[in-house]
């Protein structure tokens, strides 16, 4: 299998306050180039919820690029360890999001989840997208709290 057969995704979620204004983002890399990136605003949520939404949205969009092998990278150790079964899920709302990830992952030949440091260049891009989204939408949200 060549690297071209593998779709690589980098995800990030952010909240200003925990809970607070929250956003998610992902970057899709194929053959060494970014082929897609997206971000979205969640409203008021926790950082962990935002991290899960990043993975859910990334896997939804990944179907446009492949049905094969996907490697999802995240700087959220909690999310990665819950998705790989290393950590139990104790909160019902996270269990529901976990289930959504697994449902989307079933559409691919193989999906793996990898923890990477927040300094990774593609994670930094996803983080920047989250912050841009929070700058755009988060300010309006804070005024209504």
Automatic annotation (TrEMBL):
Residues 3-135 form the RNase H type-1 domain. Gene3D superfamilies: Ribonuclease H-like superfamily/Ribonuclease H. SUPFAM superfamilies: Ribonuclease H-like. It comes from the Archaea. This is Ribonuclease H. InterPro entries: RNaseH-like_sf (IPR012337), RNaseH_domain (IPR002156), RNaseH_sf (IPR036397). GO terms for molecular function: nucleic acid binding; RNA-DNA hybrid ribonuclease activity.
